[in-house]
Amino acid sequence: MAQPTDDELTRIAQQLRVDSVRVAAAAGSGHATSSMSAADLMAVLLGRHLRHDFERPEHPGNDRFILSKGHASPLLYASYKALGLIDDDELRTFRTLGSRLEGHPTPRALPWVEVATGSLGQGLPIGVGMALAGKRLDRVGYRVWVLCGDSELAEGSVWEAAEHAGSEHLDNLTAIVDVNRLGQRGPTRHGHDLDAYARRLQAFGWHTVECDGHDVAAIDRALAEARSTLGQPTAVLARTLKGKGVADAEDREGLHGKPLKHPDEAIAELGGVTDLRLEVQQPPAARVLHAVQSGHLELPRYEKGEEIATRSAYGQALTALGSARGDVVALDGEVSDSTKTEQFAKEHPERFFECYIAEQQMVAAAVGLAARGYTPYASSFAAFLTRAHDFVRMAAVSGSDIKLAGSHAGVSIGQDGPSQMGLEDLAMFRSVHGSTVLYPCDANQTAQLVAALAERPGIGYLRTTRGETPALYGPDETFPIGGSKVLRSSDADRVTIVAAGVTVREALAAADQLAEVGIACRVIDLYSVKPVDTATLREAAERTGCLLTVEDHRPEGGLGDAVSEAFADGGPVPRLVRLAVRHMPGSATPGEQLRSAGIDEAAIAAAVRLLVEIAVVS
Amino acid sequence: MAQPTDDELTRIAQQLRVDSVRVAAAAGSGHATSSMSAADLMAVLLGRHLRHDFERPEHPGNDRFILSKGHASPLLYASYKALGLIDDDELRTFRTLGSRLEGHPTPRALPWVEVATGSLGQGLPIGVGMALAGKRLDRVGYRVWVLCGDSELAEGSVWEAAEHAGSEHLDNLTAIVDVNRLGQRGPTRHGHDLDAYARRLQAFGWHTVECDGHDVAAIDRALAEARSTLGQPTAVLARTLKGKGVADAEDREGLHGKPLKHPDEAIAELGGVTDLRLEVQQPPAARVLHAVQSGHLELPRYEKGEEIATRSAYGQALTALGSARGDVVALDGEVSDSTKTEQFAKEHPERFFECYIAEQQMVAAAVGLAARGYTPYASSFAAFLTRAHDFVRMAAVSGSDIKLAGSHAGVSIGQDGPSQMGLEDLAMFRSVHGSTVLYPCDANQTAQLVAALAERPGIGYLRTTRGETPALYGPDETFPIGGSKVLRSSDADRVTIVAAGVTVREALAAADQLAEVGIACRVIDLYSVKPVDTATLREAAERTGCLLTVEDHRPEGGLGDAVSEAFADGGPVPRLVRLAVRHMPGSATPGEQLRSAGIDEAAIAAAVRLLVEIAVVS
Fold this sequence. Notes:
The structure is a homodimer. With about 625 residues, the first copy, chain A, is an alpha/beta fold. Chain A contains 22 helices and 19 strands. In chain A, strands 8-7-9-10-12-11-17 form a seven-stranded mixed β-sheet, sandwiched between helices. Chain A has a five-stranded parallel β-sheet with strand order 1-2-3-5-4, with helices on both faces. In chain A, strands 14-16-15-18-19 form a five-stranded mixed β-sheet, sandwiched between helices. The longest helix of chain A has 22 residues, at about 5-25. At the A-B interface, helix 7, helix 8, helix 12, helix 15 and helix 16 of A face helix 7, helix 8, helix 12, helix 15 and helix 16 of B.
């Protein structure tokens, strides 16, 4: 294949601009000017440097491309047209109901989109994950190209990514920064000061190249330099103009996210509508060597009654899973001695990614690894996963299959105090689209659920406990996602206590105490918080008329909400009571914490007695 | 007051170490070694450089101090003892139930703690907010000193702060970095390579000084250099040893967060228990000139029926509030043309803080400004506030009074697609301890609630809508926090529709449509999502037996949960149904989006009819 000439690339770039203007005009919205600044960068990348078989997006040798400035989607879709992937009719469906050409790109119907973008500062961190996969796992020489905006370099997540990529010497990663000087509401902090970006990136271990982002030959040299730089990631800092090519839009404020005012004149000024085609170089033949291992999964087994923390069981089960499956990788936020992924790190060092204290980068790297076919488990304290909330939200938009484990859930951690307590994590993960939220109470249950998550699509979350808990179940018990365990039940049950995790033991003790005074209670271990076992809850409601939830979490969005939602179908609803953490905890022993929060055995027993009395009265 | 000699400071530092070892040993937990590395830094800062009247924490001239590495709380409390603020008996209550000496410091009972720390990477961003207050608003020459760990420099939020401080030339801010080489689970990325940190910080516009963190004279020179550096913030990079002073702990891995194994021997090795006192320099006389303005609040008024977006009303009301109250400040994440805080920026430029696309830094700066007595409103897209989840969580631990406004809530934004839609924000903010969550449906309501939030303690959240909505209420209507508005009601009501924000209009239209076929519905505008108007909901339940919630949010943790929680008191629960956004939206017009999500007029009407039929059947 003959490479396109500079002149041909310039004309392609103009076509990308024209099509960007056209689609935004047709849609009545969309980011025309942000597309126009990057058109030359895109044309040169596609025409000369990217190696990608668009017919086979799964080709292991394909270079990867992420449009981190996802609002420049018109440019991406215009490129798809130039590549012959979509036709002009489809192009003009941009931003309409049912079109796969969404306002910001998502992979749900576009096989060429790696991950959803649109929340700025995420493309580079995810690209780091892909580059890590290429370098450390696939060992295939693909490159990862990320087209960034300049505004988004203000996000701390970009500097987590810069640090990670620099330290890991990811020379297969290139950031192309479209420095168009203008953000959404006006000038960026650094304007056209390319050196400001260069200094920062160099300090983080990057090679940088500055160029005129509208000079096709200069861009070509810069991208070639990126490809030939060894031992360092490269950032191509391109000076560009927003709205480039149209005099009354070029470098002007107030035009972000809008169609041009006079699209017909603009199209004429840009040279008119064309239908040029662009060919992309094929990737070299490649074979990925990390085929899933055939090993039989041997989960750890715990004797009934054995005292072991669910976080330890998590670490052991994950290690076993890693032995059975070569696609399983683990990431940690510099707390592997607490989350207990240190065992995985020891046994599978090549598949363990230390992300240091950078939870956004950790989740982003997981998304990047998942996009490359791996099954990532990323772990930190439940409390600190809130740092990555936006990345988890966007991972759901991407349809990414990632698993997250949050340790040190709830007040039960004890002395460390509220800063370290995950008390909002169930609310956060439950609200994520298509998520699975699990909260095991013992080691065997944990082990089973760690394995089950590997097969589960979407965002999986497992909540673990710091302290030791007795193994309640035998090692052969099964725990399907969406299920629950009825631990006590009789025809005389007057109240159902619904617990999960650390409160299961409290619920059982309370039930025993109540049985002594003649009050029979049903006890449900609701380890699958989402999806929830509606059938079992409904039966309990019918039999006992009242459900008391007890959770080591805030009252909002957690276990109590999960149970309520199970009855939000217009049918009869049982009486409901939520015991949850309503105060701001301080330091105390785990036992004192549960007592202070009113979620221990005594509080449960007292609540049940009160309910029974109310029921008698009413 | 005579300054302590180098020798005296060295002895004070040893006492801080001894007391750190003692309290961790007594508690059986706590971060002794992380305290020991920073003891000399703390002694020199307190003895020679900090200017603070500990008897008057509110003194406007006081320097501010933040222990960003909050796990080194033993060092902080040992310092309080050396300053005579607490006695040895209290010191030994460390980490016990009811003690104000918590595992990680919080300001709830300690007047000398500015903000809660313990989630790493937050102290410096908050310090930037305080330094901005000092420089731009108070115009008092206090300095802000932040003692950071080295591990936490991996957090992106630290680099958002570095960028903000460097760009704003905050020479009243000093970061003292305790580079002890060891994180929680092992060595940090850069170990003792002080230059690695210096290069990065310098690139972000900081002055840096490197020193031996155990050489009192060298520390003194470094801090003096920080104080005398103009036009730039300074980072003092101190090479230290974790566990310094005790041979079998010094510079060793595996000792993070634990008491020393042989505390008595360690104390002896450190020179034994002493009871030395340290005096801190008094601040200069100072007066803050920003006394609250006396202006009468004139909120904007909208005619009934006027079409205006609640985000616009937010911007207008905030501007009016700023005119009436000099303590009101606004922060924005580079989207002020969307959140509509641009009007505030124009009218009160000195009190507007552009934070660029760095939501963590934005919220942290708000916390810092609130700590200095200001009333901050921070705004971005609701979706992007998820970036700052951990900062919001920690602000609640701090007891901070900050207000956040999230625009572009829900699918109703239309074409931009899911990356820009706030669909999890209600769940996130409701789960935050002590929060207030408001979701107005019209302009007059918005204006009133913006003003009401100013008086409300804790974390306040206001959710605004992108598109125009008609003013439903007159300008004299009042909307107390915790209230609701019953918009339709009759004795014949068979179902209650509970809506908020953009779904209120849909609910009213559905009710009108249903009235035509003889089905009377009650309609409640539940603008106060937390706290929720339990009395009105209960009355509606008693009268109609069934509550249908309709929300432009995920089914979990939002309006539906708020209504369910109102009935989680063990009393009878009405039939409940939740209409919410259950699919992953794409691009479409706002009307199409509401229809696709099943939360529009037609969906509500259909659901009510179904419920009425079920009720007839059952």
